[in-house]
Amino acid sequence: MKILILIISLSLALLAENILETIDRKLTPVSAQMYKKLINIEPDGSKKEFTLFQAKKDKDKMVSLFLAPDSEKGRATLRLGDNMWLYIPNVGRPIRITSMQSVVGGVFNNADIMRLDFSTEYTVTSQENKKNFILLNLKAKNDTVSYDKLIMKVDKKTLTPIQIECYTSTKMLIKTLYYKKLTDFGDNILRPAVVETMSPLYKGYKSIMIYGKIIPKHFADEAFTLDSLANASDLRR
Predict the structure, then answer these.
(1) pLDDT digits (tens, 9 = 90+) for 186-198
(2) Count of CA atoms in the C-beta half-sphere (13 A) of 198
(3) Whole-prediction pTM value?
(4) CATH, domain 2-236, list 1.10.3290.10, 2.50.20.10, 3.90.1150.200, 1.10.10.60
(5) What residue ranges of the chain have pLDDT lower than 50?
């Protein structure tokens, strides 16, 4: 009996992890290039927009290059697992940054902007089947992850997120992410093109992330190094 219970428990855990892996692949291919627009909206209605090119490889590498506005053009960020750096042309050398900081201000932090696979950072602790969605409770695999706990609503038909609540280890809600506008990007990529976020810590503020293109593409490992960050624009060729 104990062996049967153990087998069932292991099977359920494997099924939950497979769902998370499926969600990751629905959102982005293992390796891909993409274009994003970030919009920060202030309480008075004023906006600031940024356009980024991103290159992702495997589950632990990402480079972001700022294309607009002109004041940010040429800046680049690198993420290798839990480690992140910002390159500013005038400074000439990468500066270490953290996941909870934000290179663009607004409600999105660096981990949101340079999102790696959820299955890399989180373990599924529970799963509930609701009428129209699956509710996943996720726990960070270590204390370097930006959010200790996520509560993720997943659409049953598309297996893409609908909403994600992000919490600290003390169960304080940091922000809520809303996934909207399901879009076919081609290459079997069907995912929400818009992610909106608001936070009780930043009342009146709102940030929006809009995906313009997502294209599977292979990149060499050498592109994801500190020495290559100054030449991040070469990745667009």
Answers:
(1) 998 999 999 999 9
(2) 9
(3) 0.90
(4) 2.50.20.10
(5) 2-14
